[in-house]
Automatic annotation (TrEMBL):
This is Transcriptional regulator. The keyword Transcription regulation applies. Transmembrane segments: none annotated. Residues 2-67 form the HTH deoR-type domain.
Amino acid sequence: MRADRLMAILLLLQQREQVTAAEVARELEISERTARRDLDALGMAGVPVYSVQGRGGGWRLVGGARTDLSGLTAGEARALFLVAGPASAATPAVKAALRKLVHALPEPFRVQAEAAASALVTDPRRWGSDRVEHRPPRFLDELQDAVIRGVQVRLGYVDRTGTETGRTVHPLGIVAKGPSWYLVSNTEAGRRTFRIDRVSSVNPTADPVHRPEDFDLAGSWREIADEVDRRRMPLEIQALCTPHGIRLLRMGFGGRLEVGGPTPDGRVEVVIRGNDEYVIAGELAGLVEWLEVTGPPGVRAHLASIGRALLERYPCTPPSGGT
């Protein structure tokens, strides 16, 4: 926490040019004694800070010195440098920029930033495979640049059938979904999403993007993802589950599970999404101790059929010596 306090004090000095120990104590909710000790620590660490004695005095930075990181706390600075490590997925430009930022940090934070840069390793290979997977798609940088500059793009695109088309799009944002990257754009046909690994060419134009004033990339992507989930998993299974079984359902179905409210008998209403009645019945068959499927009827019928098949394959025989 002390590193965060020292960074906060430095930011106060940059914003106000002069602060008193009382002001620092009030802002950071610490004692004046602690504030004075922290101000002294900044000076001993090499930050060009000095005190002005007497009435109207306080603490100042020599020559109005700045770090050019006025929006970062110490924790945020460390988080940034985590992505700059030698094995990270950051682009060379990002790594180079963050390395330059290290030199703008005061000495107390520079050591932690440099340590953070070597604290994270990402290995894109699967176990048992030498093949590196999930490489960034070819035209990712060009499309990011178009989004940032706000210019329309003439896009070459290959759909899932292998047909290549060309169109002009208004890039609004880029989303990473697991190993895949998507471009969210406005087109003549409305808002569309393109898988960037299917993009065959990118030619920026000089025309500006028409960006809706109320556009929110995160909110727009949630709507897109929900619609894709509904198309992939159009089947909804209604069921009642014991409280102890909810954890098993979460482990088995993840985002396909929606947990509702309790019922008078103490169970919990749940909805599970799927795309085939027989397949989902097979997934649920092992959970009958905790789960009662109430609909649709086709899934209940498949569960009954699976139960009969299990009894035929594994007939109940009393243990030896039983009656």
